[in-house]
Amino acid sequence: MGDAPDWSRLDEYQAQVTASDFRWLLDSHFAPDDAAKDWITIEPGQALIKRDAGDEAPAVLKFRAFEETPPPVGRYWRTRTEWAADKAELPLAGLKIALDPGHIGGDFAVMEFRSWKVGDGPLFREGDFVLAVAQSLKPRLEALGAVVTLVRDTPAPVTTDTPESLRPVAAELIAERELTPGLEIDVKDLQRRIDALARLLFYRVSEIKARAERVNESIQPDIVICLHVDGASLPEGVELADFGHAHFLINGAYSADEISYDDQRLAMLEKLLSGSWREERGLAAAMSESFAAVNPLPPYVYTGDNAIRINENPYLWARNLMANRLYACPTVFLEPYVANTKEFYGRFTKSPAGLVDEYADAVAVALTTFYGE
Questions:
Q1: In terms of Cα–Cα distance, which of 13, 31, 11 is closest to 23?
Q2: What are the beta bridge partners of residue 223?
Q3: Least buried of 10, 26, 215, 287, by fewest C-beta within 10 Å?
Q4: 3-state secondary structure (DSSP) of residue 283
Q5: Is the Cα torsion angle 261, 74, 138, 277 positive or negative in sign?
């Protein structure tokens, strides 16, 4: 379900970065461990980028000299500096914010394995909870002058696809064995495999692509805040973890395998060259400080190679997720709580509205802090 990349989009970014900055960003943020070496060659004054595996005339990306000013880029979002020039009396006046409640609500939460309860306790559905956060947060931010849009404003999905309509695509992918990481199906029966993959394509691919289209073509915000609640992997028979954690994600940490996909390679370069990472780093740091002030939790630590720390902030990680890759503007994923812990579920049982308010307040404080500096 990938789209053929339009490599002419790179022309917008000619002479945007210096050679040293390009190499530094690849090594420390976007393509660690030399992950791009088979596709990107850095030469004096330029980089050569393969558009596909058989590309004998790679795309050329010109670097700018250190003393040169980069030419303007035709993007829809504004940096904090660009927005500040238009700022009025209200602290977030005119700032365009998209709130993206993660996952899907209602009965779809069962399909996504984001619906559960403990004993006679209340039912927790992540998609419904973060939608409530977004609905609580929107008027708070509007009172501060922001222009706020919810990417998903009901429990229903944004995509018009359904698992049933995606069964032919799933069957074709399984027949051709063209499954990208995250879409592997460990089921032997063919029809059950097709059904399982169709569901994954529905909520992991089609839904995210539909939201990306809404963000990039319709809303066109300055920033997207993706609202989530993490979940802990627990041993069999254990219903709640003793302790939680928090972390905040921005785009980066592409693996060699991910970079081998032409569309992901182009998206990585656009993220790097557009400078969205600067906004993401600053806002994610503000989020980590704001949540630590109201509900201090230890930072989550990734032990695999699918995410990296990109500075000294232990809460801030770079990771290549479909949404933060496809949303063209700066995008920050929030994972400030772990739902299946004694502390969170206990609070959710006693006062779900209190948790919603705490989440919304912390986001509002972080946005005001970052954009008010």
A1: 31
A2: 97
A3: 10
A4: helix
A5: positive
In this structure, the number of other CB atoms found within 10 A of the CB of residue 302 comes to 14
CB within 8 Å of 90: residues ≥ 6 apart: 144, 145
Give the 3-state secondary structure of residue 142.
helix
- How does DSSP classify residue 122? P
The residues with which 59 forms a beta bridge, in sequence order, are 49
Helices (H), 69-118: 80-84, 108-111
> What's residue 294's pLDDT?
97
User: Residue length, the chain?
Assistant: 373
Distance from C-alpha of 23 to C-alpha of 296, rounded to nearest angstrom: 36
Residues 156, 343, 280, 31, CA torsion sign: negative
Instruction: Give the residue extent of every domain in the chain.
Output: 7-62, 80-157+209-372
| Burial letters 320-349, b for 16+ CB under 10 A, else e | bbbbbbbbbbbbbbbbbbbbbbebbbebbe
Identify the band that residue 269 occupies on the pLDDT scale cut at 50, 70 and 90: very high
Q: What's the mean pLDDT in 125-147?
A: 98
Three-state DSSP string of 158-220: CCCCCCCCCHHHHHHHHHHCCCCCCCCCCCCCHHHHHHHHHHHHHHHHHHHHHHHHHHHHHHC
Residue 183 pLDDT exceeds 60? no
Q: Answer yes or no: are the C-beta atoms of 323 and 228 closer than 8 Å.
A: no
Give the number of other Cβ atoms within 10 Å of residue 312's Cβ.
Answer: 7
CATH architecture of 80-157+209-372: 3-Layer(aba) Sandwich (3.40)
Residues 312-340: pLDDT tens digits? 999 999 999 999 999 999 999 999 999 99
Q: What share of the chain is helix, strand, coil (3-state, %, to 5)?
A: 40, 15, 45
Phi, psi at 60, each rounded to 5°: -110, 125
Contact 39, 265 (CB under 8 A): yes
